[in-house]
Amino acid sequence: MSDRPVLVRAQGLGFAYPDHEVLRGLAFALPAGLSFVRGGDGRGKTTLLSLLAGALQPTAGTLQRPAGAVFHAPMSDAALDGVVARAWLQQCRDRYPDWQEAPVAELVDAFSLPPHLDKTFHMLSTGSRRKVGLVAAMACGAPLTLLDTPFSGLDAPSRRALAGMLERAADDGTRAWVLADYEVPDELVAVPFACVVDLGD
Predict the structure, then answer these.
(1) Closest by alpha carbon to 71, among 168, 141, 4, 127?
(2) Which end of the chain is more exposed for a tag (fewer CB within 10 A), N or C?
(3) pLDDT of 169-193, one tens digit each?
(4) Rounded CA gap, 138 and 145, in Å?
(5) Which residues lie across from 90 on neighbouring strands?
(6) How far apart are the first and last CA of the chain?
(7) CA atoms within 13 A on the CB side of 13
(8) What is the residue extent of each domain of the chain?
(9) How many CA atoms lie within 13 A of 115 on its CB side?
(10) HEC string of the chain?
(11) Does domain 6-198 have CATH number 3.30.365.10?
(12) Which of 49, 41, 31 is nearest to 192 (CA)?
């Protein structure tokens, strides 16, 4: 993996809200492939993903990110509630110039999504909302793809399908994938991570 391009670099990275500090002094380099951000409750996993996405700006240090589009779609966002899942996927097609259609058909089937694509997001379970987001994550072709606790709320067949998707991501020599979770999911214990950022317990 040493010959893979580094797509993200952080040095002395920190972030603080007005009333408390969340992250301090982080230094890491994320190459192409699958990286893992580990941390307990309140340790800043979601904040770090928001920094990587550009939704938040660091309050300390430096963060270099790829120039292309970043995929980061918190599927619990209430703004999605009135949006039809199929229409949202079309919006993603239009937003990401390197969108790949093949993974859409594969994952829609693997995640048992066909009966749900013409429903609005507020009609979907937490797991189904997450599945729609994961379809877009796989297909978007973004140089940096961010996944926050992606296994949460998924049934066993969908967890297996997601694990297969992430095993392929680990072999990706052009895209950087960042998965944040409390611990490495059981399905990924044998997967080689390009980088691990440990935020502590």
Answers:
(1) 141
(2) C
(3) 999 999 999 999 999 999 999 999 9
(4) 8
(5) none
(6) 28
(7) 24
(8) 6-198
(9) 5
(10) CCCCCEEEEEEEEEEEECCEEEEEEEEEEEECEEEEEECCCCCCHHHHHHHHHCCCCCCEEEEECCCCCEECCCCCCHHHCCCEHHHHHHHHHHHCCCCCCHHHHHHHHHCCCHHHCCCEHHHCCHHHHHHHHHHHHHHCCCCEEEEECCCCCCCHHHHHHHHHHHHHHHCCCCCEEEEEECCCCHHHCCCCCCEEEECCC
(11) no
(12) 31
Structure tokens belonging to residue 58: 């660091």
Q: 127 near 154, Cβ under 8 Å?
A: yes
Q: Which two tokens stand for residue 159?
A: 């967890």
| Whole-structure pTM value | 0.93
Tokens of 60: 């300390």
Phi-psi region of 131 (alpha: psi -120 to 50; beta: other; left: phi over 0): alpha
pLDDT band at 1 (very low <50, low <70, confident <90, very high): low
CA 133/CA 107 separation, integer angstroms: 11
